[in-house]
Amino acid sequence: MIKIAYHPVYAHPLPAGHRFPMLKYELIPAQLLHEGTIEERNLFAPEPTNEENIITTHDAKYWRQLKELTLPYQEQRRIGFPLDAQLVEREIRIAQGTIDGAIYAQQNGIAFNVAGGTHHAGSNWGEGFCLLNDQAIAANYLLNNELAKRILIVDLDVHQGNGTAQIFENEDRVFTFSMHGDKNFPFRKEKSDLDVPLADGTTDDEFLHILNEKLPLIIQKHQPDFVFYLSGVDVLESDKLGKLALSKAACKQRDQIVFENCIKAGLPVQVSMGGGYSEDIKVIVDAHCNTFRTAFDLIS
Q1: What digits encode the pLDDT tens for the residues 127-136?
Q2: How far apart are CA 284 and CA 21, in angstroms?
Q3: Which terminus of the chain has a lower count of CB atoms within 10 Å, N or C?
Q4: β-strand partners of 153
Q5: Each residue of 58-101: pLDDT tens digit?
Q6: Where would I find the Histone deacetylase domain in this sequence (predicted)?
Q7: Cβ-based neighbours of 78, under 8 Å, separated by 6 or more
Q8: In CATH, what number is assigned to the domain containing residue 69?
């Protein structure tokens, strides 16, 4: 059975008028339940992760400042919203949801976190709405507990996974692959193992051609035994922040390419949702739901 991490704190409210669409985290599971793609038994509510898991990936001083709500104002501005206790709880539950999802994926092939994909959080900084890097924490958990030997992180959010790249820059067991907008945030990029910078206005055919070409070669060369997939839908043409020009159909096809390559290679995959900033919340939710639908269609 495909398991999906979700907790009500995922939809933690932010100041009125904030552009980050937290509402989607309630609407995604509600839509999937309504249409019958999933049942209640597919969902699980993660507990907060423990400090050991966090400081294996993040600097202990940075974590202490988050926990004690003493992070300097300038660093809170870099994150993009004011720090509070519920926001920190949200991040540590997301991290545990991705750890649990990785274990479920090893049992069932694919698992999801309704939130996550917090790839801008580096070892000692938060940025771009990200405090703690859920997939990096989960990757280190698998490695440190000898549950995986070689890991591939496939980041197809429109923004480079700079935090993930920095965390694993000296870790040969983790291969970081990021396809992202070249002239988009973050404007200071880190170096992934493979970065594919995309021009503004990149279309369906070009994006899918590159992914079809690169991903099988990476799997063949790196020989991972686990995959983390960040499936941001801010690649859509309708996205306010994305600058690419993908259709919803191509975004779904992107997901299918990732899942089919993982299934073909016998690789378990944990999926975190990442970004999505289209004007119409229905577009965001439907595009994210397509990722779930595609996986369920392939696994069932």
Answers
A1: 999 999 999 9
A2: 9
A3: C
A4: 176, 228
A5: 999 999 999 999 999 999 999 988 899 999 999 999 999 999 99
A6: 22-281
A7: 125, 126, 127
A8: 3.40.800.20
**What domain range is 84 assigned to?**
3-299
CA distances from 213 to 150, 183, 216, 219, 225 (A): 21, 23, 7, 11, 20
Rounded CA separation 295/86 (Å)? 31
Identify which of 109, 98, 123, 113 has the alpha carbon closest to the alpha carbon of residue 232.
Answer: 113
Task: Write down the H helix ranges in the chain.
Answer: 24-35, 51-55, 60-67, 73-79, 85-108, 134-144, 162-167, 204-222, 248-264, 281-299
Count of domains for the chain: 1
CA distance 100 to 93: 10
Question: Which two structure tokens, joined as six digits, stand for 182?
Answer: 């070249």
CB neighbour list of residue 271: distance below 8 Å, 6 or more residues apart: 101, 110, 111, 112, 113, 228, 229, 230, 231, 291, 295
Assigned token pair, 300:
């069932």
Instruction: Answer yes or no: are the C-beta atoms of 198 and 214 closer than 8 Å.
Output: no
- Residue 84 corresponds to which tokens in the numbers above? 């509070």
Going by DSSP bridges, is the β-strand pair 269-272/174-181 parallel, antiparallel, or unpaired? unpaired
- Residues 141, 57: Cα–Cα separation, whole Å: 9
Residue with tokens 């067991």: 173
Q: Which amino acid is at 59?
A: D
**98 and 137 in contact (C-beta within 8 Å)?**
yes
* Arithmetic mean of pLDDT, 243-261: 97
